[in-house]
UniProtKB/TrEMBL annotation:
<dbReference type="Pfam" id="PF00149">
    <property type="entry name" value="Metallophos"/>
</dbReference>
<protein>
    <recommendedName>
        <fullName>Calcineurin-like phosphoesterase domain-containing protein</fullName>
    </recommendedName>
</protein>
<dbReference type="InterPro" id="IPR029052">
    <property type="entry name" value="Metallo-depent_PP-like"/>
</dbReference>
<feature type="domain" description="Calcineurin-like phosphoesterase">
    <location>
        <begin position="1"/>
        <end position="233"/>
    </location>
</feature>
<dbReference type="InterPro" id="IPR004843">
    <property type="entry name" value="Calcineurin-like_PHP"/>
</dbReference>
<dbReference type="GO" id="GO:0016787">
    <property type="term" value="F:hydrolase activity"/>
</dbReference>
Length: 291
């Protein structure tokens, strides 16, 4: 999860070997590499548009070399299209309902501009609509929260299409204005579930075993070798859960979250390997505030 931090995003991409190290140019160096970002580019940081632009530019360059750059929409992308800006720092609201900071005119103008960009059919909503919520690359499943059996039964293509149509729709009389529940609503939706990514110390053995069974069932039903998810910061870094079936790669590296060291999951010939940057700089107590 990048959460508006361009500096950390660049650090991760350079470490992954897909971006030139020079700070004044954005050159794809990954050749035929396929890069997947698993959602939550938006909120908590100031560089959201710059990151979207960077990934778009890298995708064009990657395709010319036989590679690709994919983005998967997360819960913060769907929240912004809903008009829910609670995690955009300057639009956050205090417990008594007051805007912080107390410059209502300035804040209201910023809110209106953001709402116009991200509303259904708006420029950035349509940009997000180009990206799926569930992605299959070489029989590895990528999604923000997690893929569950009832998602597969409902239909992955159907879920992706419903979310895309909902984001693009500007006709209030159309059924496409309805929020796609299966993907974006509830604790067991694609972008919100933490079934696989929750810390093992917070769970019972029975719950842990159940999540492994569900992961195995889900992957078997789609013929996949593994699953990669974000959404929940992993205080011990990128790790695998569910008997090695699910990789959890959100380390909270944005300055708006935990400001931890960048980490990247590299998969070559179906063999995952974790690439790590500099040491962590966050206080683990901050995790409670984030979750």
């Amino acid at each position: 999860d990048l959460h508006g931090d361009l500096h950390q995003t660049r650090a991760a991409l350079v470490m992954a070997g897909v971006l030139s190290a020079e700070s004044d140019c954005h050159v794809w160096t990954g050749g035929q590499t396929v890069l997947v970002q698993v959602g939550d580019i938006l909120d908590r940081g100031e560089d959201e548009i710059a990151i979207l632009s960077l990934l778009s530019s890298l995708n064009v360059q990657a395709k010319s070399q036989g590679g690709a750059v994919f983005q998967v929409n997360g819960n913060h992308e769907t929240m912004n299209v809903e008009g829910d800006f609670r995690w955009k720092e300057e639009y956050r609201v205090s417990p008594n309902g007051d805007w912080l900071p107390l410059n209502f005119v300035k804040k209201n103008k910023g809110f209106a501009a953001r709402a116009s960009l991200f509303k259904q059919g708006g420029p950035l909503a349509c940009e997000l609509a180009r990206h799926p919520v569930v992605l299959n690359v070489n029989d590895w499943m990528f999604c923000h929260g997690g893929l569950l059996p009832h998602h597969v039964e409902y239909g992955i293509e159907r879920i992706n299409k419903e979310v895309s149509n909902w984001m693009q729709c500007s006709n209030e009389d159309s059924d496409d204005t309805n929020l796609p529940f299966m993907a974006t609503r509830g604790y067991d939706s694609v972008v919100w579930t933490r079934l696989y990514s929750q810390d093992s110390v917070e769970r019972t053995r029975r719950s842990w075993d159940l999540s492994s069974i569900i992961a195995e069932q889900t992957l078997k039903s789609v013929g996949a070798k593994g699953m990669v998810v974000g959404h929940t910061p992993q205080t011990r870094g990128v790790n695998c859960k569910c008997d090695g079936k699910v990789w959890c790669i959100d380390v909270g590296m944005s300055y708006g979250v935990l400001h931890s060291r960048p980490e990247v999951l590299e998969i070559v010939n179906d063999r995952p390997r974790v690439l790590k940057g500099q040491r962590d700089s966050y206080d683990e107590m901050e995790v409670l505030d984030y979750l």
